[in-house]
Amino acid sequence: MDKKTECEIVQDLLISYVDDVLNHASKKLVEKHLIECEKCREKLQEIRKDGQKNEENQKTQIDYLKKLRRRSRIKAFLMVIFVFVMIFVSWYLYKFWVINRVCGKIEKQFEGENFYIEENISCDENSVIFNKIWYKDGKYKVVSYMEEVGKVVQKFETRYGNLAENAQEEYFVNEDEKKVRKEKMLTARKKRDFIVSQSPFVLASGVDSKYEFVMLKLGEPFYVKISTNHKQIGRKYYVFDFGESKKWVDMESGLPIMSFGDVVGTNFYPNTNIPKQEFSSVSEYHYDFGNVADEDVQMPDLEDYEVEEFDWEKEMEQGLE
Questions:
Q1: pTM of the full structure
Q2: Residue 173 in 3-state DSSP?
C-alpha cells in the first residue's frame, strides 16, 4: 500500500478513532500511521479541534435553551402573578367604587334641611321597635317606642333639639309624667349625626381625623362581600354581607332598605355568663323628604313640666375629682 492510499484510509478512520469506536486492529493501524505521518497528525488535531468546537457550540446552545426555558418559566410565573394582581385590583376597585357610590348617594339624599327617617326593628314575631326622626331647618325630634301585637308597651323619652340655637343642648321629654331632662352635651350635635347611622359604612362623622376616615374607607372593601339582586321588592339593590349581618341598599338612592342578623339581645343559662340564645333583628327603613312640618319638630310648652338640668362636662370633672 503506497503512502497516499494509506493516508486516505487513515483520514477516513480518524473521526471514528476520535469517537473511540474502531476495532482493535483498525485502531492499531491508525496509531501506527500517526506516528510516522505528520500530515495525518495535523488532520487529527483539526478533527479534535472541530469536535471541541462542536461540543462548545452544543453546550452553548443547551445553555441558551436552558436560559430561554428559565426565562419562559419566569415570564409565565410573572404573568400569573400579574393576572392575580389585576383580578385583586379589579375586585378591590369595584368594591371601593360601590362603597363610595353608596356613601355619596346617601349624603346627596340628605343635602336638604327637611327629612324623615323611620327604622322598624323586629326582634321576634310579636314585638317591633320604632325609631323615628323628624328634621327641619336644624330642629329635630326623635321618638322611640316598642309595640307588641299593634299595642305600645314601652315608650322612651322623646328627644328635641335645635342645632341653629344651641347644638349642645338636647331635651329628653316624658310627656306622660310631665318631666324633662335638659342635657348639655360634650360636643355640638350636627345634622350628620342623624344620617350617619343610615350608611352601611363609615361616614365622616364619628371619626377623629381625616386620616382615620381615609384609612377606614380604604379598609372597608376587604371585609365586606357585595352582590346585587332585584328579587322580592321589585327594584335593584346591593347586598352588603358583613359576615354576621347583611344590609340591603337601594341602588338608585343609596338608602338602606333592610338589614338582617344584628344581635340585639342574649339569654344566658341561669347563674352563668354562658349564652343560651341570641336574638337577631330584622330592620326595615322608610324615608320621606320635604314633607316635615314645623309642628312635627315643635317641642311642647314646658311651663308645667318638672325640669332637670344635666351637664356632661361638669359630671366628668366631678368624676375625675
A1: 0.69
A2: strand
HSE-up of 266 (CA within 13 Å, CB side)? 10
Residue 303, φ and ψ in degrees, nearest 5:
-60, -40
Q: Which amino acid makes up residue 75?
A: K
Q: DSSP 3-state assignment of 234?
A: coil
CA distance 238 to 303: 49
CB-CB contact of 209 with 202 (8 Å): no
Phi–psi pair at 258, nearest 5 degrees: -150, 160
The rounded distance, in Å, linking the Cα atoms of 196 and 202 is 8
Q: What is the largest CA-CA distance in the chain?
A: 147
Q: Which uninterrupted H or E stretch holds 177? A: none
pLDDT of the residue at 204 = 45
User: What does pLDDT average to over the chain?
Assistant: 83
Of 132, 160, 159, give the one whose Cα is nearest residue 146.
132
Under 8 Å between Cβ of 259 and 249: no
What is the per-residue pLDDT across 168-180, written as a single tens digit (0 to 9) for each? 999 999 988 999 9
What CATH topology corresponds to 112-149+189-300? outer membrane lipoprotein receptor (LolB), chain A (2.50.20)
